[in-house]
Amino acid sequence: MEDLREQSRAALAHLLDKAGSPRGVLLALGGSTSAIGGAQIGKAWSLETAFAVLEGLLPLIATHDLALAVQGCEHINRALVVPAPVAERYGLTEVSVVPVPKAGGSLATSYYSLLDEPVMVADLHGQARLGLDIGGVLVGMHLRPVVVPVWFGELKIGSARLSGGFSRPPRIGGERAVYDRSQLDQYLN
Questions:
Q1: Beta-bridge mates of residue 157
Q2: Can you tell me whether residue 131 is helix, strand or coil?
């Protein structure tokens, strides 16, 4: 389990580094503990694995003041677990369901059990600025456009491949538009 904790921490650290170490934003997390264990999604769930992944992620999430939303599986329409204050801050629509490993998944179940005031929400209305997908469970629908994909190379959590990304504002303008504040200095000097 210690390997899973470290791999999880390394995966999130990689994503945060590529995204420019954002603080105070919403992170959509999805994952299959079955895939982490080398099995087909939904066939070998593990709460122990889920808790190990969360134990690896939560300290870094706290350090960066991120709001965490953990996506459940298709059996609960990919509803997400969030702390009640996060649901309120982002104006998210609450739904009535409690995740369990066979209907929601182990990550959602574990996160729900850790929170003092868990709330299930239908979706994030495309407000997540970061997304981490463990094992191909498809969290991209929760990210704000424009999503910049992050390549994780050989990084894995257990046997699960990783994908993820971060959002940047859409770029507007034509060939004379500037997108980097440091380029402003040439006009001011």
A1: 160
A2: strand
Do 131 and 27 form a contact (C-beta atoms < 8 A)?
A: yes
Q: Is the pLDDT of residue 96 over 80?
A: yes
Token digits for 106? 């182990």
Question: Model confidence over 138-154: pLDDT tens digits?
Answer: 999 999 999 999 999 99
Domains and CATH numbers, the chain: 2-188 (3.40.50.10360)
| 103 contact partners, CB below 8 Å, separation of at least 6 | 72, 73, 75, 76, 97
**Residue 12, SS3?**
helix
Distance CA 158, CA 7 (A): 8
Between CA 65 and CA 169 the distance in angstroms is 21
Task: Report which secondary-structure segment, H or E, holds 73.
Answer: none
- Residue entry with tokens 């959590």: 157
Helix or strand run (H / E) with residue 61? helix 47-63
Residues 35, 50: Cα–Cα separation, whole Å: 11
pTM: 0.92
